TrEMBL record:
Pfam families: Fibrinogen_C (PF00147)
Biased composition (Basic and acidic residues): 35-61
Annotated Gene3D superfamilies: Gamma Fibrinogen, chain A, domain 1 (3.90.215.10)
Listed GO CC annotations: fibrinogen complex
SUPFAM superfamilies, per database record: Fibrinogen C-terminal domain-like (SSF56496)
Primary site of residence: secreted
Keywords annotated in UniProt: Disulfide bond, Glycoprotein, Secreted
Protein name as annotated: Angiopoietin like 4
Residue ranges of the region described as Disordered: 27-61
Annotated GO biological process: blood coagulation, common pathway; fibrinolysis; platelet aggregation; positive regulation of heterotypic cell-cell adhesion
Molecular function terms, GO-annotated: extracellular matrix structural constituent; protein-macromolecule adaptor activity
Subcellular location: Secreted
């Protein structure tokens, strides 16, 4: 871990603001993503549209997608889950040959506005069939079931993808949904989220970040486990090209240690799975 952190800091020292070649390539296909209207969780409701490539599944009382997988569900889609101490809610399950992942965040096309306030990030917003944020309260309840891994997958505009995975826990609202890193990171991506072992969640209207003189969520965009603003923000604005305006460049979806601070990523997925994949006895 220490080695990773040293690498991270080295990269931060060496990193230029952005790569000029990439900027030119992207400028050639400059096209703006129109900001969509605010999508409320209630309006999306996750039940009013057919999911992509999968039928709606009947309600159940399985706590998460891995338990649904163990119960015989093998195809990805929308399912109802109910962790202990929670009302039932719908999730998108990404079923692989090995197990079921519960998807907690997805960005693919900019169709959903992620520049939302605390209550929206707490309760969730967007469209489970497309781009969405599941909601901190739901994620908190899901990971109360045991030990969980978080898998983050990122894609750039040149067809490359990278991933990072680590064991984590998520505190409740009284901790500002603090993300705790519980284990070492695996995957190709350098760490850009956990150089601090614990990070509370921040939105424009709830500044819990580690930068005293700045509101990172306001300075950038969206809600995230901001430390000192510049490491990562997968809930930033969706850009199809690098914005010309300097203040807008900071607002995109970025993972500093992969593509740099000003490279707007093409897609992101965040999903969780128990660390132990066997059924509970
Ligand atoms: Ca601050």
């Amino acid at each position: 871990e220490l080695r990773l952190f040293k690498q991270l800091h080295l990269i931060q020292l060496l990193e230029s603001p952005h790569c000029p070649r990439k900027t030119e390539e992207i400028r050639a296909q400059r096209a703006w993503s129109e900001p969509s209207e605010k999508t409320s969780w209630d309006r999306a409701d996750f039940s009013t549209r057919e999911p992509r490539g999968a039928a709606e599944h009947p309600p159940g009382h399985r706590p998460d997608c891995q338990q649904l997988f163990l119960a015989g569900q093998q195809s990805s889609g929308i399912f109802q889950v109910q962790p202990s101490g929670s009302q039932p809610f719908k999730v998108y399950c990404d079923m692989t040959a090995e197990g079921g992942w519960t998807v907690i965040q997805r960005r693919t096309d900019g169709s959903v506005d992620f520049d939302q306030l605390w209550d929206a990030y707490k309760n969730g917003f967007g469209d489970l069939h497309g781009d969405f944020w599941l909601g901190l309260e739901k994620i908190h309840h899901l990971v109360q079931e045991g030990r969980y891994n978080l898998l983050i997958e990122l894609e750039d505009w040149e067809g490359n993808s990278q991933a990072v995975q680590f064991e984590f826990s998520l505190g409740g609202e009284s901790t500002a949904y603090t993300l705790n890193l519980l284990g070492p990171l695996s995957g190709e991506l350098e760490n850009a989220i956990g150089d601090f072992r614990q990070l509370p969640f921040s939105t424009r209207d709830r500044d819990h970040d580690l930068k005293a003189d700045t509101n990172c969520a306001k300075h950038l965009s969206g809600g995230w486990w901001f430390s000192t603003c510049g490491h990562a923000n997968l809930n930033g604005k969706y850009f199809r090209s690098i914005p010309r305006q300097r203040h807008e460049r900071k607002q995109g979806i970025f993972w500093k240690t992969w593509k740099g601070r000003y490279y707007p990523l093409k897609s992101t997925t965040m999903k969780i799975q128990p660390t132990a994949l066997e059924a509970e006895p």
